[in-house]
Design goal:
Distance between the termini: 46 Å
Number of helices: 13
Shape: globular
Order of helices and strands: EHEEEEEHEHHEHHHHHHHHH
Structural class: alpha+beta
Length: about 325
Amino acid sequence: MTILAQDILSLAQRQPFLQEDLHLLHEVDRNVPGSIHYSIKRYKRLPQWSIDDIGILEYMYITSDEVTNNLQLKFCLSGNIYCDQKQTECDNCKSNSTLNCSNKIESIDVLSFSFSPSYLQQFVKANKTSHTFSDQVLAFTHTNSFSKILPLCGKTRMAIDALLNHTYTDTHANIFVNAQMQILLLYSMDCMLGDKEETGFSCKFLSNEADRDKIIKAREILLQRIGEPITIKALSRKVAINECYLKKGFKEIFGTTIFDFYQSQRMEHAKYLLYEKGLSVTEVSHLLGYSSISHFSTAFKKQTGIKPCELLLH
């Protein structure tokens, strides 16, 4: 039986869903007000199902009231492997021998990400005079709702695979997931606009795989040091590439500057610590490496548009 991924997406959104249609293996659902809501649901794939993978971008502009507006990314993929043992407990999974895992279950994976206008607008603040379609969408000045089927390129599949199979937990998982969602947003916007060929780079040195790996490694170091700020000079030394190449390569691969990426990840993690973990403003300020609460509050408001204490009122 051939079943379209749209059907899976529809079934996954039923409340309650039909158990004879889908068997839920794993579910994650997180929401931070004024930021991102995401869900990841993994279902057992029935052997008679033939699934067509799909990605969808939905831009919802209902009124000028941003509470009702959002941009959603939805993905449905099959053929991945789910292990009902945690990767820290399964010897085969820990050694990356998933195919030999005795607990493996072939899965259908449904991922949904909803971005609020206030979250997306941070990416166009530095370029308010631009009138490109991409900027209009991110700034929510485009007043017509639309949806678009997204081709699932290799980069998108790798980002989704990372989300499904990472081994981070608790706050580290939150940092990693936030970063991967921004990558998916970047790739989806590129697909929507047809801006770039997957293998094309304007920085010629990025055609060298070793140099691309250094840029990716720099991003990983930034994520590992959310509470320990690092200078670009120190970062360039850690990955053995000069500062100029590091800044240009990072901007091209990830669509943002090193500073803006780092600040964005710090403030998204601050939202998580404040809203979901219930930490105080003082505690979060200290964990993120700020010298004073006022410095943290200023940076938080600049990035998010609200004060840290205002998030706690939601």
